[in-house]
Amino acid sequence: MEKKIQFGTGGFRGVIGDDFNKENIQLIAQALADIIIENDQQTRPIIVGYDNRFMSDFAAKWFVEVLNGNGIRTYLYTHVVPTPAVMSTTKDMQNYYGVMMTASHNPYYFNGIKVFTKDGYDADVHFTTLLEKKVAEVKEVKTLNERLARKKDLLEDYDNLGSYLSHIKSFIDPSVTKNNLQVLYNNMNGVGVIGLKPLSERLHIHRFTIINEEHDAFFGFTLPNPTKEALIGEFSETVFNQNYDLGMATDSDGDRLGIIDERGQYVSANEILAAIYHYLITVRGYKGDIVKNCATSVLVDLVAESLGYKCHEVDVGFKNITAGMKEYDALLGGESSGGLTMRGYIYGKDATFSGALFLEMVIKLNKPVSRIIRDLKKSVYYDYHFSEDYIVLDVDAQKVLDYMRNNLPELSLKYEDVKIFGRNIKFLFEERQWLLLRLSGTEPAFRVFSEFEDEEQGKVLVKELKDYIEQVQNKIAEC
To answer: Which CATH number fits domain 12-160: 3.40.120.10, 3.30.1300.10, 3.90.1150.10, 3.10.580.10?
Structure first.
């Protein structure tokens, strides 16, 4: 039987009942078990977590059955948890590996598996390539049922919510006390509420209203991702009409953050990252550079430079951000899709953590969110227009990217340089303007990012690039 299992920047993901099924889940588990045994890593248990997605709890148990069947000890969460909680445990317990059942922000009919390596890092390409190779080599899947596994002390229940939240609390300014902040929090039927609800109490938020707290495996038939498209509308109108100071939302597995200001306007992930960094340096007294991925705004660069520090740019994938943070001993690292982490915290994005920092910032600065962002941009003379677009392909996306690497398009505005970041092509123009073509790691599509002083010019260049992609895929289809 052909085994087609591939890991992208966010782990393995597939449609439930199709690629995401018991057979593939247990194949991956057996492949991981084989790696553990070959490297004599059985001395440490494997922590396995799961979120609210359909079949996540079953998938976790199926995964554990295989690890136990190979004589490997496992800790299985007794309840749903955010992905960062599993990363935190993997780091704190000094385990070799951790596993999370989630498809992150994908539609409800997807599920997936994230694997974390020592210290709680997202598994890198080298490891996921090895895991894919081992999957193809599996000849027998060994399993052990729950009753026997517990009898042999191979399976234990686990819950680290207390230590996970204590770690986050240690980063919160202890001077934050009773305040008048009013927050509308959209849990998006995910697991972010598990951390943000108790942390709102630690921050003494005057009014913290939660919506979509209940478990819904369909996520209300909406995309459980706190993007502008998801938050502008009924949610943003409620924030404005009911006089909340801000709206906050997290994705289904609790690692992406979205913000709406008091006027009902969307605050981008770029602005969140830049604002928190500026606050940590100027108010909290921290020091250090910042790391961003190549799809993140130049606003971050300008803020870093204004503070006497540097912004380092890396390939898409949070594993690249954390690697950059380690290399440069950076204070903060983040990306335009809504995730960030900080020196001394876990090596992955966490919306509970970033949400707590954002709330603290608003309380300490004692200014409306819109003014915080406006003042920040004004201080660094930022006046660009950032946009994101999307194009679905009808042919092999990798072939399109390979062709374009060797046959760059001619655009109406001449670019000064081109940088290749893995599966990304970035066109650099004068005045730090740029255009980025990014191959999706989970679907046959490209994302097109742009940042220009002239909004209309940006739209023209995005259209030209999209038209060129259409021409390339038509050429490939004819071959």
So the answer is: 3.40.120.10
Does residue 468 contact residue 409 with C-beta atoms inside 8 Å?
yes
Per-residue pLDDT of the chain (479 residues; tens, 9 = 90+): 455 788 876 789 999 999 999 999 999 999 999 999 999 999 999 999 999 999 999 999 999 999 999 999 999 999 999 999 999 999 999 999 999 999 998 999 999 999 999 999 999 889 999 999 999 999 999 999 999 999 999 999 999 899 999 999 999 999 999 999 999 999 999 999 999 999 999 999 999 999 999 999 999 999 999 999 999 999 999 999 999 999 999 999 999 999 999 999 999 999 999 999 999 999 999 999 999 999 999 999 999 999 999 999 999 888 899 999 999 999 999 998 888 999 999 999 999 999 999 999 999 999 999 999 999 999 999 999 999 998 988 888 889 899 999 999 999 999 999 999 888 999 999 999 999 999 886 677 889 999 999 999 999 999 999 999 999 999 888 87
**Which pair of structure tokens corresponds to residue 59?**
């998938």
Number of neighbouring beta carbons within 10 Å of residue 136: 12
Q: Name the CATH code of domain 178-379 (choices 1.10.340.30, 1.10.10.10, 3.30.413.10, 3.40.120.10).
A: 3.40.120.10
The helix (run of H) or strand (run of E) holding residue 292 is: strand 290-293
**Which CATH topology does 385-478 take?**
TATA-Binding Protein (3.30.310)
Question: Per-residue DSSP letters for 429-461?
Answer: -GGG-EEEEEE-SSSSEEEEEEEESSHHHHHHH
The full set of domain ranges for the chain reads 12-160, 178-379, 385-478
Kindly report whether the global pTM for this prediction surpasses the value 0.90. yes
Helix (H) or strand (E) holding 74: strand 74-77
